Amino acid sequence: MTLSVFRCNACHHTLFPARYLCPNCGAADWRGAPFTQGTVTEATVVHQRVGQSNAAPLHLASVVSSDGPIVIARSEAALHAGDMVRLTLDSGGSIVASPI
Question: Which partner from 34, 55, 73, 78 sits 20 to 30 angstroms from 44, CA to CA?
Fold first, then answer.
């Protein structure tokens, strides 16, 4: 599955997640635009989760697209600021980043 960001048809402002009205011009006319890769701006690892004492570490990264929106994605391994990643959606709808 492919992740989409949302582009205003009136002013071309791009954002994620979708909103009812464009924060830039106030229009309510959107189209989806694919967000398939981006650059990691920040990354972290969650070692402990509430109610899951033996859970594996959870790798998370903030990924920015060339259009501007930032998404938070999971990854199988540690990522670092500046890494280029490919973005997909898993079967549960979570955003997943994989190194390019």
Answer: 34
Reported as a single tens digit per residue, the pLDDT across 15-36 is: 999 899 999 999 999 999 999 9
Asked if residues 86 and 100 have their Cβ atoms less than 8 Å apart, the reply is yes
CATH number of the 4-99 domain: 2.40.50.840
Find out whether 65 and 87 touch, Cβ atoms under 8 Å: no
Cβ atoms 83, 95 nearer than 8 A: no
Give the E-state strand segments of the chain in sequence order: 4-8, 14-15, 30-34, 37-46, 58-64, 70-75, 84-89, 95-99
Q: Model confidence over 28-71: pLDDT tens digits? A: 999 999 999 999 999 999 987 788 778 788 999 999 998 889 99
Dihedral sign, Cα of residue 29, residue 31, residue 37, residue 43: positive
Stated pTM of the model: 0.85
